[in-house]
Amino acid sequence: MPAPERGRGAGRAVPAADAHAPVSIVFADMDDTFLATDKTVPAGNLALLDLMGEKGVPFVPCTGRVWSAVAGQVLAHAATRYAVASDGAVVMDVRDVNNPRRLHLSALGRERALALYERVGELPVTFDAFWDGKIYVSRRRFELMRGFDIPPYDRDMYLRYRTPMDMSTPRLLQSLPNVERITIFTGEDDVRARAIEAVAEDPTLHYTYSSARNLEVMDADTSKGAAVRWLCDRLGIPRAQSVGFGDSPNDLSMLAAVGDGVAVANAYPEAKAAAAHVAQWTCDESAVARYLEPLL
């Protein structure tokens, strides 16, 4: 097996099982990490879920998506007991997928969402409000997405999982009980820069991203990493016995929070630099399964 890259020094793609801490829980980003580029679940990763189910090792999707948008084959699998969603704003118990329970909430809230919209409302951007398993956007801003230079698979996912509303964005936000986080998609670099400036005006917020065209805005204390730490502590699992997989800047905190943070081969340079290991396989090559199977 050829030697791979390693984020913090030389090493192998798959550490020897006897040199690796026991794997008691696994966290994985979905898009371009556990899912293939075309948003399907590679066969190798499906087989991995079966193996994890047999061994009683919980699998936790750790995604920027709302929990209900996790691929059905993953969400309904017996190995998937919990989900970290909305970039860590929520932790869900999904063992009964027909009756999921929210265990933890770290919300941006309506007031800060409204204030942010006042600062970006004149820009040609989407403004997507995440709440309770759904993503709401005013129809006028929803339609902007069709004109943005976004990879087709990503655009299709956006259009599939958003709920366009025939009302203004302020009215939409005021109609929601709460807001977990906001996603802003932009079409031009200068618009993106102005949106970033608008986020930075409120020091209680921060942003990350998973593509060159989006900003994922949340409370300053909200992140995938914070949610991973919360869930491990709740379950009494030492974080040294956790493994996490990612590819994007929104995965950096998760890669740092787990015992073994692994970037897939197609990851952003920032994710590779932050990871303990960089797998030699891409998301299309079942990177998560090929790295993890020898350790289970």
From TrEMBL:
SUPFAM superfamilies per the UniProt record, alphabetical: HAD-like (SSF56784)
Taxonomy, superkingdom: Bacteria
GO cellular component entries: cytosol
Entry GO MF terms: magnesium ion binding; phosphatase activity
Stored Pfam families: Hydrolase_3
Family matches, as InterPro entries: HAD-like_sf (IPR036412), HAD-SF_hydro_IIB (IPR006379), HAD_sf (IPR023214)
NCBIfam families in alphabetical order: HAD-SF-IIB
Matches recorded under PANTHER family: HAD SUPERFAMILY HYDROLASE-LIKE, TYPE 3 (PTHR10000:SF8), PHOSPHOSERINE PHOSPHATASE (PTHR10000)
The name this protein goes by in its record: HAD family phosphatase
